[in-house]
Amino acid sequence: xxxxxxxxxxxxxxxxxxxxxxxxxxxxxxxxxxxxxxxxxxxxxxxxxxxxxxxxxxxxxxxxxxxxxxxxxxxxxxxxxxxxxxxxxxxxxxxxxxxxxxxxxxxxxxxxxxxxxxxxxxxxxxxxxxxxxxxxxxxxxxxxxxxxxxxxxxxxxxxxxxxxxxxxxxxxxxxxxxxxxxxxxxxxxxxxxxxxxxxxxxxxxxxxxxxxxxxxxxxxxxxxxxxxxxxxxxxxxxxxxxxxxxxxxxxxxxxxxxxxxxxxxxxxxxxxxxxxxxxxxxxxxxxxxxxxxxxxxxxxxxxxxxxxxxxxxxxxxxxxxxxxxxxxxxxxxxxxxxxxxxxxxxxxx
Length: 349
Prior knowledge:
The structure is a single chain. This protein has helices at residues 15-28, 31-34, 44-49, 60-68, 89-96, 154-171, 187-201, 212-221, 235-249, 286-298, 302-318, 332-345; strands at residues 4-9, 35-40, 71-74, 101-107, 122-128, 138-140, 146-148, 174-179, 207-211, 229-233, 256-260, 265-269. It is α/β, with parallel strands linked by helices. It folds into two domains: 1-100 and 255-349, 3-Layer(aba) Sandwich (Isopropylmalate Dehydrogenase), CATH 3.40.718; 114-249, Isopropylmalate Dehydrogenase. Strands 2-1-3-12-11-4-5-10-8-9 form a ten-stranded mixed sheet, with helices on both faces. It has a two-stranded antiparallel ribbon with strand order 6-7. It is globular, with a radius of gyration of 20 Å. The mean pLDDT is 95.
């Protein structure tokens, strides 16, 4: 059987460090035996090295590798701001490959403090990832008036709602749809309608509505209300809410992310490139390593994915070799070493 091909974007900022950590862990479970990992360039660092020329942060060669691969493992990449600068690497890939579902699993860990002292909290953030305000079209109407288009389609809304209900049904959880239809009556209106349409196919899954401003408060005031729930929303709303949910776990450095389409998927950490920490060997590698485990699961290597997740859980629970953001003092490399040690100590398959 031919090996699977995985495009690996090392990124910039802390990207190369955490990607290298993930690749070491993949190698520890025999990565080279089942997949070919092809390193690629992308991000602001590459773009600036080219003299800031072109309208994409992804070189043509990388696009070719992405198109020939079975999946992508993406490290954090920096996105420049300002009018005329290219759109982000993640948004570009999501739209190019129709990766409609951005998924972020949130969970607390033993011995990791979090702002609300939660324990055994878990939810799943499901975000429509191809349209909304990230559709990326802005217009200047006059020297005083600028507008951004919030594109919401019924077809994309139905697709992401069905995805969320499938995930909820697997877990025996309910769905919470997050919106602002009292103000955005058409765009949020069809998004909510799509959730109710999806519920018809999943009658055993409960559905609750909540406004975006209210959930921002309720996640702090009453977070257990959302324990064991699938949170569903449009692109920008869920981008923000999933960040807030990440804080409930104690650090966004713990949160992996998947971008899933019908025929392709990209896996990455939920966090950004954190340029000020680049090269210091202090970044938490957990999210990137868990993203790599998710990639292996997507490729059918479930046992190897479980071995990685169990090792990560053990290292974090012990609390001896963990990074500063979750209460330790270990370096990125030291935490990775400890995860690999746990993998090597685990029983053979």
